[in-house]
Amino acid sequence: MISKSEAARRDLVEQFVYLAELAGLQVAERFLANAEASFDDLAQQPKMGAPLTLKHPDLASIRKWRVKGFDSHMICYEPRSGGVFIVRVLHAASDWWQLLGLAD
To answer: Domain 2-99 falls in which CATH fold?
Structure first.
């Protein structure tokens, strides 16, 4: 099972719009399809992503993985019983520490 936070849903829409404007609708649609395929892979093997070393105890289980074919897009997720919870889908060049609420 795959569930997504509201922030992750917004991230997907924002990246879709950005890619559609920058690279065209086909690329944006491929991004969404590849993101969903990546979520499916993570749901099948939730531990395959690299764990983030975070001091905050509520975030200790967050891991990261890339969107297939879009290596600069990172999926931050938590393994859950029977699947994964997608926390955020961020561009690697973004201030993802700030976006995850981890910056001081």
So the answer is: YaeB-like fold (3.30.2310)
